[in-house]
Queue: 3 jobs
Job 1
Amino acid sequence: MSDLFLGIDIGTSGCKLALFDIAGKAAMQAAEPYPVYYPAPGRAEQDANEWWAAVCRALQRLWARGADPARIAAIGIDGQSWSAIPMGFDGKALANTPIWMDTRAADICAVWEKRLGAERLFAVSGNPFSPTYTLPKVLYWAERDPELLSNTAYILQSNAYIVYLLTGAVTMDYSMSYGWHNFDQQKLRYDASLSRELGLPDRFLIEPVPSCTVVGQVTAAAAKATGLLTGTPIVAGGLDAACSTLGVGVTEPGQTQEQGGQAGGMSICLDHPRMHPKLILSPHVTPGRWLLQGGTVGGGASLKWFAEQLACKGGPAPENIFEELSAAAETAPAGSGGLLFLPYLAGERSPLWDAKAQGMYFGLKYAASYAHLVRATMEGVAYALRHNIETAAEAGAAVSELYGTGGSANSHIWTQIKADVTGLPMRIPASDTATTCGAAMLAMVGTGAYPSCRAAADGIVKIRRTHTPNPANAALYQHLFEIYGDLYRSTSESMHRLYDLQSTL
């Protein structure tokens, strides 16, 4: 009996797989890590072949624990944003993919903005022309490695790469279209004139489909590699942030997901596109909806860096390290004794869009303890979240409550900090598998188990706890947030000078 749905998440630190029943209960999970490579300043890459290998390993772990592939009714796949996987005509990846934090195309962006006009690019895409997006990475190759592009048959996003290896289908879903600035977010089609001026060949312009569309079935070759059954339906899937947003039940205008994974940020559900030059606009995986997103570089990755480099002194981190860090943060006062952290460890995305932004601790004193440092790191991520929420309000997108997702949602202290810093209640779903659950929900809708994404959310999502803002802490954080904003504004020039110097070292 086929009564389970598989969600596959291609994240930054690794892949996560989970099997769900029709009620959204996770029957079994597995995860496998893979590295991020930093070959030069401004570069952050992953090997898509390592994604596939990790997926295959995770599936083997499921089978070893007793999971039955015959019970899988359909599969949904989500992935990190703004990949650019150059696929050869032989169906193999030709190079590592620059990932969402890669900023190598900063100079290329400046050239094209001058050539075409930043206003025109924004009017079509609804997004800033940042080097972290997919299109600038392709334009970088066109300028710096034209031979690579001449040998490229098509450019795939992260979820589409796994879909391709499972089914042989070349796809892109609507939620991933926003990586291409030549894709009109209001008309939901490529701008033909802009595409021609950018010099993009037609073979790169994959026509998108709704995320819940069944695009193929597991092939015999994929079945042999994975242990899945031949013929298992696969839906297009979508952006990880959008799947996570669906997974916490955000399908209606005004509802907002807070992303607490490796990257941080928020996704506000809209019933029509709202543009802001400092935010991110994308279609939702829910048909007829859009997301106004604030995506930051420093989310869970900031605490992961702290754990690996400071807590564990560069050595391996124990499995319970994040519980230990949360316990330490509990012992520090709100505001961390006036210690501030800027989570710009790989530049910053929205709303700064500054590839040269630098991370820092500010306000260090002899009285600062290990616990102060941990809590300040958590608070810095919360300030970045608030910065995006306040920016969204400028576009008329008000937020009344946040639905927390990602690993940080498991930390009660970090969740409470976010509620206190933003002044908004934080609602945490009963399941901490929102992203994989959202991918599985797309598979459910695509194969008719639910008639719509809204119906799937109503049938699956349950809230397990709510954090309300502490008024006293909120008042303190208001003052500290103002200083947080001043820090970047007053030091950005020095940050840029230091970045340029770092590139020579």
Note: The radius of gyration is 22 Å.
Job 2
Amino acid sequence: MKNPNDTKKPMRRKYNLFFRYMGFSIASVTISFLVLYIIFLMFVSGNWNSDRMDVLTSNAMVIAEKTASLMSDDVTEEDSYDSALALADTLNTVSDTIEADVFLCDAEGRLVLCRHMVDTQTHTLQTGECETHSGFAMPSSILNKTSGNGYSTVASLPKPFSGAKQVIGGAQIIRSGMPSGYVYAISTSYNILSPYSKNLTKMFVIAALISLIIMVLLSYVFAAQLVRPMEKMSRLTKQYSKGNFSERLEVRGAKEQQELAESLNDMATSLSVIEDSRKSFIANVSHELKTPMTTIGGFVDGILDGTIPPSEERRYLGIVSSEIKRLARLVVTMLTLSKIEAGEEDLHYSTTDLNQLLFNALLSFESAVDEGGLVIEGFEDLPHIKVQADSELLFQVAYNLFDNAVKFTNKGGTIRVSMEETDGRALISISNTGKGIPEEEIHRIFERFYKVDKSRSEHVKGVGLGLNLAQDIVELHGGDIYAESEPGGFTSFRFWIPIEKTTDPQE
């Protein structure tokens, strides 16, 4: 039965990277061709209008000069008629040649003579207004700008030129130094591209379609090469999130893809190491906690149920107390390690006397030193070197190194302490006799929970965190720690820290 409280979430349409890239490519090509088409039309139209105005104006100026010569004062009435007829023929010829309407206007802009005023059958000149230009007068806004040097513009004219804008070229007729009229040539086809617009559009559409097809094919190949590795990366990241770090990406393709694949592989390797460390850490901690807890539980139960006689209770309670302290040290050590690794452990610098610090740390093991008959050397010659450091954390380093030395020094053996100042550093060495550390294992002794072979530590209690913690604290101070061992001789742990305060390397 369906839960009435369950609400169906609306389906969200998902577009993968492949289709997004394809859509972007198609849109880019389409927009590019559209912009190119518009720019082409504007460029060609602009150039045509400019050339057209030059042609109209130059012809108007020629006719204006010819008209002025035919209007001389000594011309008879008969000659005037012949001149007007010849001029009308000229207007007709020029109009046909330049595909424009060429005519003459008086000083007020009224039409005086045009090609339509010639009777083609009788070859005579009509009087009065022609039917084509009936009632036409050139606007004063154009007349006032027209001079003997010519004038050109694009404008809308009254009837019979109503409608679209026209290309206009004109010149003023100058007779005896005085203006006496105007000649205008008007293009009857403002947009020369109109007859070709369909063909141009068809050409651009075909070119755009061909380009789109090529772009789609290229985009498909490129997008596929781009998307496939990313799909595999996505699949692998899901596996990594589940803890499966076995598979790796092939490092190939473009530089960016290779870098991404290498980074992802490095991440998987790091996560694998971290996961192994985590599992090992949990297993080791569980083991280290289980042993003392079992001991404590067994002894307490023995005391409570009377299995352990009252005379032995004190001794077993001492063991319980020792195990509880051991657990407390383990918890404190793990917390300190966790803070250092998380960058949450702040150093509290103070002036620290290393001689006194080492002596106080060794006093913690006074009873163990006496029980083992151990010989302590070097304190009588130990210099007093003061450093700027976190005294509590540095005490922990000394404590852990002495703890390690006391545990593994042979009965009646020697623990040797030395210290010197060199190159602004304080170098401390704590050495002990014993079986030593095998050469193949010495590089691992600072690993967390690592213990040397059982034959060396079968009677030694420890969790394998002391040296790891000492290393982290020394490095936190900007120093370094290392170990050296001679089989059957001295095993030495040496570390150095700057004498002066240094910047936290984790910052």
Note: Residues 18-196 form a domain with the Beta-Lactamase fold (CATH 3.30.450.20).
Job 3
Amino acid sequence: MKKLLFSALLVSGGFFSVNAQLADGSIAPNFTVTAYQPGLANAGLNNNGTFTLYDYLDMGYTVIMDVSATWCGPCWSYHQGGALEDLYAAHGPAGHPGVSGSTTDDVMVIWVEGDASTADATMLDGAGSIGNWINPTGSYEIEFPMANPGSTVANQINNGYNIGFFPTIYKICPNRTISEVGQLSASALYGTVSSCPAPASAPNDGALLQYLGDNKACGAVDLVVRLQNNGTSPLTSCTITATEGATTVATYNWTGNLSTYGIADVTIGQFTPTNTNHNLNISITTADGNAANNAVATQVGLASTGTSNNVVVKVSLDRYGSETSWKIKRSNGTTAYSSPTYSDAAANGTYPQPDINTFLPDDCYSLEVLDSYGDGFDSGYGNGLVEVWVNGVKIAGVSDFPTGSEAGDAFLLDGVAGIEENLSNSLSVYPNPASEELNVSFEANGDYVIAILDLQGRMVATQTLTGLTGSQTVKFPVSDLAKGSYIVKISREGVSQTQNVVIR
């Protein structure tokens, strides 16, 4: 359903750019909106019908926010189903209009018109919209706040929350962290509330929200975590430690001044992986009021190495290929290669694309894959992948991307190492001993110098060859050489391989 809406949005709503949605675990920006419904004129916290996100979060409510458009068919269908009405009635703030007297009193619902061009006069009465949004079922007025914030605030919300499609439905926890929940039933929406951390209650409570550092690296990795103050008093210090099993790999004594729910991204040190998979646990090791939120786990590994500079990128797309793009970036952040523009297919399925062959110089590279819709490319519409191959071996890739907007990997290219390995494995000198002619055979890819040296290192014969590819056999006449022992040396880009030979 949302996929179809996304396409419609591009045609009907050119009022903001399409972005990947705000990543789960991000901090929700604050906003204030005014309810459109006259019946809620005195329902806001300020008794003027205005509703401020952080006010409700600070009171311990989880906020369900629906950003829609009055012309949007899927938005209207979801609205007519009454999920938000039922959620608000059973779990909304006690004493608010339309909320049951037996409410759990832990959820707030806010609907926001996301099209900044929508006029108040035509917003909810059916004129210029798909229907009467206040009274969609013909039975009673919607009593959770529905807001048409106007162009300035609407654009702030669209940009701050990376709204790329309608409807976008977010869950915002009291600690301000956000996740996209989608068009769920009332019971399913309420089921997501339990995953929110408890509101701040202890005076001293540092929390680690997520790991932000790289998971693959060619060398040292910066270990970065997001620290939040989940306590009622300012957080001014804590010790953060990273361990692998019983071994401490990094520790950092953080100091600062975070108010309640304030965040800081903290680099606690560097870790140099020695294999492809290190399981790290990063935790606050100083005592505080809630140990349950003190740790995050992550995997860090050494990037795979390709021993050739000839790279093959293999791509498969799901039905909505237009949402997928990728880049290969060098260690300095510049883009070495960008994906072409892909197209959508008519049905769900997996759609392999032509291989992309390119030459990349020696460097450490990052593979970055983006899904503009924010649901990955493995979410029920077919299986996608983006993989980097060298010498018939996959060295990096993204093939399990069911949710989120971005995924990635890293890889190292060391063509010099490949040259050495290739020469070592493929070089053959024959016959040995030789009397008339000497053959030097090898697998080539580039420019080479082949020389015959005596045991004192003096060159007695040489050939320079350029632009070679594939299997090669280079012939040297040796009948004029003095009998004895010699060295055959083949070189490319400063890398050489030798073999001893006898002339008789």
Note: Residues 206-302 form a domain with the Immunoglobulin-like fold (CATH 2.60.40.10).
